[in-house]
Amino acid sequence: MTKNTTINYREKIEHSHVYDVAKITPLEFQPNLSARINNRVLLKREDMQPVFSFKLRGAYNKMASLPTDTLKRGVIAASAGNHAQGVAMSAQKLGCRAVIVMPTTTPLIKINAVKARGAEVILFGDSYSDAYVKALELEKSEQLTFVHPYDDPDVIAGQGTIALEILNAHPEPIEAIFCCVGGGGLLAGIAAYVKAVRPEIKIIGVEAKDAEAMTESLKQGKRVMLDQVGLFADGAAVKQVGEHTFALSQQYVDEMIVVDNDAICAAIKDVFEDTRSILEPAGALATAGLKEYAKRNNLSGKTLVGIASGANMNFDRLRFIAERAEVGEKREAVLAVTIPEKPGAFKTFCRLLGDRNITEFNYRYSDPKEAHIFVGVAIADPNESANLVADLIAQGLPALDLTDNEVAKLHLRHLVGGHAPQAENEVVFRFEFPEKPGALMKFLDTMGHDWNISLFHYRNHGADFGRVLVGMQVPPNEQTEFAEFLQNLGYPHWDETHNPAYKLFLG
């Protein structure tokens, strides 16, 4: 018996204190998305809360339940985003002190939003983990109460009020409810209530491909700690789920779905087309998972509910999302095509494309015999991409489908035409740098070697981290030192030396 079985979550949810600050958000029909996937899609608009996120519910429910003398001493939280704003607004309503520890990498827009609610902001460390440790220190030294972002029964119950509202708004049959998952508070709260009231409704958790802590934990039957997490869906980038949330998910969650960044971008566009609202990446996870579930199970005519969990979007990130949405929706194929460097070859290539719309075209002369072209083509469905590649190859034009190649889509499309045969012993790595002053110098100082940097590409995407592609000339007898450098650096990294797109355009 787990600790959660002693808690009546249905009762806690039905008696939660959330509506002093939170509002009952609409459950909206999505006509365009519903028509496209042939199911009835309803979106629970938590992006319409006063802080543009569901996090307000759990934070306030926890704080409102504290004894008066405890509340007077104040609360503390560690967060870089939505939870911070929820705690700050709750403290403002309850008239108590709130201290929020945020990583130094937190964008200024988020820091200012928290300060505007009257909270004290302390910047500490490079990551949420650093901020969390600092918050626990201050909790003891200043006798504050820590408000956990997800692993607390009162926080879980506050998030569970969303389920109560969904079932009140839609008493008719529902096939499944989809929730984004970071630490698991939203998923656990909704699952606990729905399974107590309408157990026939499936509860599906959705995680980003590079941050699937709950998926792995449920597979292994224990909480696992991920070595690193991708930060695109930063609102759900958690290395380890909570004890309470994991136990509840084991009891009540029917399935987990993992989606990639392109699918998230496509979901943001889907919601925009129906609502004219722009969700943050974590806020669109449920919609991305809903689409994947319907496709995977060949569903038709069912009612599917997704939680639009947040809309605290950095404006600069929109460029990246717009670039990737069509690929995520399988409406664009990204190809590398080799054609003879002779008159008429380009015309032959274009004729083979037919009346398809060209979305991107990159080419630079580099060889007297053949030309490598990076091209984006609008397609109607994924099968069309494979057929197009086959047609090109049949006509003697070697073609490679790069639609799922992260390096190609993120970096090489901006670097096409840069062959460097003189760059001997080149290794190519993709890194995620903290988006803060000094990150590059740390890279160079840690390198501490005379390895020549032969390629470097960085592009700001309005995130808390930067995506960087680096080529370095590392002699074979120095591979051990290079491995030590990567370990000491501590930045997430991926070896792309043998990536076919790199070989074709830059190797």
Q: What fraction of residues sit in β-strands?
A: 15-25%
Any idea what the radius of gyration is? 25 Å
Number of H/I helices: 20
Which fold name is given in CATH as the topology of the largest domain? Answer: Rossmann fold
The percent range for helix content is 40-55%
- How many beta-strand segments? 18
Largest sheet: 6 strands, mixed
- Structural category: alpha/beta
Report mean pLDDT, rounded to a whole number. 87
How many structurally independent domains? Answer: 4
- Low-pLDDT segments, ≥5 res: none
Gap from first CA to last CA: 58 Å
Q: In order across it, which strands form the biggest sheet?
A: 1-2-10-7-8-9
Write down the overall geometry: globular
CATH architecture of the largest domain: 3-Layer(aba) Sandwich
CATH C-level name of the largest domain: Alpha Beta
